[in-house]
């Protein structure tokens, strides 16, 4: 990204941060990441803005990504699994996937002439669809129950096919029993029992297995937490 387009991109990030400040978001990394934390301080929502190396003055891409993290979970992952690269991530997706724009991979053009129109639209999506997601984690027992029953179907727009289940979160904030029930429901709903058995067999035989498909991330976490396949 050329210097002038990067400056324009960062200026747009700062304008977004200013519009979202009244909603409790705090800027980080020159406002490329905006963070809001739950009232109990154990979980936070990050909105991270990425851009393109191919920007020019008339087209400056901004791609918003949403993620839910927990420092408590990260510490638990390090202690439980010895994973020094743990991130404490519970859920992550492109922002649009929680909105009616799902699966469109929209580029938000932050060229100077577009900002007054585009920035309010983007902020509106964040307030309408991202904030309610964080609100779900204000009540952790309820969040555990919802995920156990419905997986990561956080709203009517998100497509849960090929989405991963936050096994570590369920174990850390809940219990192995809660995680097992959620895993059972997940395998039934996603029809992934065969995939789980394939992954478990490979882990047992070789001590490790590559992630051949997206949902192998769930299978790895389930295996590491000693969940069983009973569906």
UniProtKB/TrEMBL annotation:
Cited Pfam families: DUF4304 (PF14137)
Q: Which InterPro entries does UniProt cross-reference here?
A: DUF4304
Q: Which domain of life is it from?
A: Bacteria
- This one is known as DUF4304 domain-containing protein
Question: Which organism does this record belong to?
Answer: Chitinophaga qingshengii
């Amino acid at each position: 990204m050329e210097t002038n387009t990067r400056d324009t991109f960062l200026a747009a990030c700062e304008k977004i941060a200013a519009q979202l400040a009244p909603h409790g978001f705090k800027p980080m990394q020159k406002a490329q990441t905006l963070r809001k934390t739950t009232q109990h301080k154990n979980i936070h929502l990050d909105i991270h803005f990425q851009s393109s190396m191919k920007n020019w003055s008339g087209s400056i891409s901004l791609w918003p990504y949403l993620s839910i993290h927990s420092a408590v979970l990260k510490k638990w992952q390090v202690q439980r699994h010895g994973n020094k690269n743990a991130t404490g991530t519970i859920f992550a997706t492109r922002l649009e996937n929680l909105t009616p724009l799902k699966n469109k991979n929209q580029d938000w053009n932050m060229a100077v002439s577009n900002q007054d129109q585009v920035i309010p639209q983007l902020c509106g999506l964040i307030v309408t669809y991202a904030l309610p997601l964080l609100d779900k984690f204000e009540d952790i027992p309820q969040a555990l129950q919802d995920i156990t029953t419905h997986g990561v179907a956080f709203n009517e727009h998100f497509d849960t096919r090929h989405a991963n289940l936050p096994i570590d979160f369920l174990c850390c904030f809940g219990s192995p029993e809660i995680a097992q029930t959620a895993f059972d429901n997940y395998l039934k709903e996603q029809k992934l029992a065969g995939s789980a058995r394939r992954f478990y067999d490979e882990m047992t035989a070789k001590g490790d297995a590559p992630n051949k498909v997206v949902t192998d991330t769930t299978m790895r976490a389930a295996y590491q937490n000693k969940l069983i396949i009973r569906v």
